[in-house]
Amino acid sequence: LGSTRRPHHHHLFDSPLHGSAAAMSRAVLMVKRIARVSGYTLGAGAVGAAAAGGYLCATEPGAGRAARFWIRAGPIVLNYSMARYWAKDQEDRSARYEVLHERHAPDARRIIEELRGMFIKVAQVLSIRAEIVPETYRREFRKLQDSAPASRWEAIQDTLERDLGAPLGELFDHIDKEPLGSASIGQAHLVAWRGTQAVVKVQYPEAASNMRADFWCLETLLWLVGDADAGRITRQVREQFEIELDYAQEAVHLQGLYDALTGTPAGARFAGRVAIPRPIPELTAGAVIGMEYFPGPKLETVCMQRLEALGMNLKGKSLNDWFADKAGVGTASDSLGGQAAQSAAEPSSAVSKSSRLGTWLLRLVGIDFALRFLGATADVRLRWWRPSGSSSSDGVAATTAELRDTLRLILDVHGFQLFCCPFFNGDPHPGNILMLPDGRVGLIDFGQCKALSDEERAGLARLVLALSEPGAGEAAGSNARIAEAFAATGVRSVNSDEAFLSTLPRLMFCGLTPEMLDREKLQVVFRGDKVEHMPLHMIMAYRTSMLLRGLCLVLQENVSVAHAWRPWAEMWLREHVSSGANSAAVGMAV
Questions:
Q1: Which of 285, 280, 67 is nearest to 193 (CA)?
Q2: What would the pLDDT profile of 490-502 be if each residue is shown by its tens digit?
Q3: Rounded to an integer, what distance in angstroms lies between the CA atom of residue 485 and that of residue 487?
């Protein structure tokens, strides 16, 4: 009773229940403190990451491009991911994808046009890969133009002075700041050097970084949408374009082809008719290649003028795609995926009727006659209508007969490259072929070259022989020989169908025939099989053939690339294969 202390009910606090409550209270307090500290940490981390990302985008051009790509492409990827998630089955997913293809293909083209660079080149390559790219996207990608604005002069000057080791005033008597031409990875400038004109080709400082970023974006995008085949093809394309970034290797290509053309018995036949720029080692280092200057218009200019004389317009398409559209068939590259016939399987009745009528007329008069008639028409119109600024010696006003001789020469020299040179050029488009004032044909730009092993060359030579043998289109057993030779180059198809493996190489390397315009026949062949694997050397050989044959068709000449290359293939087999094996190889095509 006399105590003044308040009772402490220790029994309550000492009970197990109270101990748990206290522990929980302390735990909650600790969690709050950790959360508060973590918030500060995460906030600081976010600020730090944003700062680091901003610095990276400001100092690394590829990072900025990647960021812009994902900002634009992210919603597209999300839509495809949602469609795949909500799809009930494969058929439902395909239907959902078709709707998205129509919606987003134009968006994808606009993104590529905005970012340009390697995106343009890769999209153009993918536009002919029907086995991995839907037709809706390929149609949009064909509209892309491979042009690029010139780089800042200061960046070009810095690269020249850094890699060549002296100020411009000491390096050159004069240099034109306006480039002769610009592309996605570099540009060329005309210089006066030691009393003569030369060209320096300069790679953009950000070219390598941009290429790595562009391909990383594309490969990641394809991985996100779950297309393993497309990812594999894109990696193969990346390896191909990495060659073009290596200016030191391009200088080796240039020197090797120049030496082969000017210093070998086989190259002697082109003396005074074909020219490759003489390399200038003193102007070649790092991201700079120096070479002899070639004046004269590009063959591309000649093509455009002749088409305009015939009242035609490419409308931004490649020559091969333009001709394919006019002829009413897919390109040979469409057949790589077995979709040339599929795309023609459900044409509108008007298109189907016009295609049948066109095929019937071509069968009646013959493709060669039709092309010669167009050539004569172009000659007449060019005689009365000459483009402003052109002269009779600039190549633009050349007659069809003169152009035929030039085309045969171009085909011949590329066969020489394939079978007699250390490298062959896999990018002989009309912009890389010049009509020189002295009548020679000038070949430039050797960034897309490929060296062939003896095994690869032998396989390609035997395929050329099989395709160019007399009566290869009708002779009994020719399909089997062509299919066997095609498979021996390393090409694999899903079903190893003989009809497919004999028709596809004809489309790739032979002249155009009415049978190639027969949609119903192509449907039967290409619905039954498709390419599973095509080696890089065959893709590049096909690209060479496609560009050369498309060029010939636009200039009103129907050619078989296999026939043009046959003499070189026979010569290589005679010189590099044992007599017994060679006899068997040649005998396979007889």
A1: 280
A2: 999 999 999 999 9
A3: 5
CA pair distance 511, 430, nearest whole angstrom? 19
What is the residue type of 207?
A
Q: Is residue 321 classed as helix, strand or coil in its secondary structure? A: helix
3-state per-residue secondary structure call for 477-508: CHHHHHHHHHHHCCCEECCCCHHHHHHHHHHH
User: Does this model's pTM top 0.85?
Assistant: no
| Whole-number Cα distances in Å, 113 to 39, 123, 229 | 41, 10, 25
- 194-203 CB burial, b ≥16 within 10 A, e <16: eeeebbbbbb
Residues in the chain: 590
Name every residue whose Cβ is closer than 8 Å to that of residue 135 and which is 6 or more positions away in sequence.
Answer: 339, 343
Identity of the amino acid at 260: A
Radius of gyration for the alpha carbons in the chain, expressed in angstroms and rounded: 31
555 vs 306: CA distance, rounded Å: 7
Quick one: tokens of 37?
Answer: 């500290």
Work out the number of other CB atoms within 10 angstroms of the CB of residue 79.
16
pLDDT of residue 323: 45
The position carrying tokens 């009309």 is 430
